[in-house]
Amino acid sequence: MKKRKKRISSVKTDASAEKVERWLKGAGASFARSRSSIIPMLQSAQAALGYLSPEAMAGIARHLRVPTALVQGVASFYAQFRFQPAGKHKVTVCRGTACHVRGSGRLLDDLTLALKVTPGRTTPDGVFTLETVACFGSCALAPVLVVDGKVYGRQTPAIAKKTLNRVRRSGGAAAAHGGRP
Ligand code: FES
Hints:
By secondary structure, this protein is of the alpha+beta class. The protein has two domains: 17-77, NADH-quinone oxidoreductase subunit E (Arc Repressor Mutant, subunit A, Orthogonal Bundle), CATH 1.10.10.1590; 89-175, Glutaredoxin (3-Layer(aba) Sandwich). 40% of the residues lie in helices and 10% in strands. It has helices at 17-25, 38-49, 54-64, 68-77, 97-101, 104-115, 157-170, and strands at 89-94, 128-133, 145-147, 150-152. Strands 2-1-3-4 form a four-stranded mixed beta sheet, with helices on one face. Strand 3 and strand 4 form a beta hairpin. The longest helix is centred in the last third of the chain and has 14 residues, at 157-170. 35% of the residues are buried. Residues 94, 96-99, 135-139, 142, 144 line the site of FE2/S2 (inorganic) cluster.
């Protein structure tokens, strides 16, 4: 599992306190009050609420009777967790071994610069959320870029940027034909 350190910003949330409370009284209440429940609870909250708001992490801490800082610290360590609402399009760069040796590091660096966001973040216009994955299971097509679940194989930074431009213009990955599959 890809790990990282990142800062949790206090962005304005739309996962309202009521939604968080509803989740805490429903699915959240089923988790054992143990530190080993932190990651499963974070995953469950993100699946239900779309992302981890400060209210959600405080609620998890309350349920588990641990400091909120501990829950935030655990969440910030893993690339799988998001602290902002997801953008309209999810852009995932594979960081698995096959993709890595074929240039996914440069691909990610270039997309980070082009979109002006780091992995786990959403562009200010709310169009793209950039993410990474350990292996997408399409290693023969490395390096792989996935946009809204559609796989684009053998990507270079230039091809990937064209693909994203097409997605932005067309409003959906299905209408874009990028890459060299
Ligand atoms: S390593 Fe990228 S798809 Fe497997």
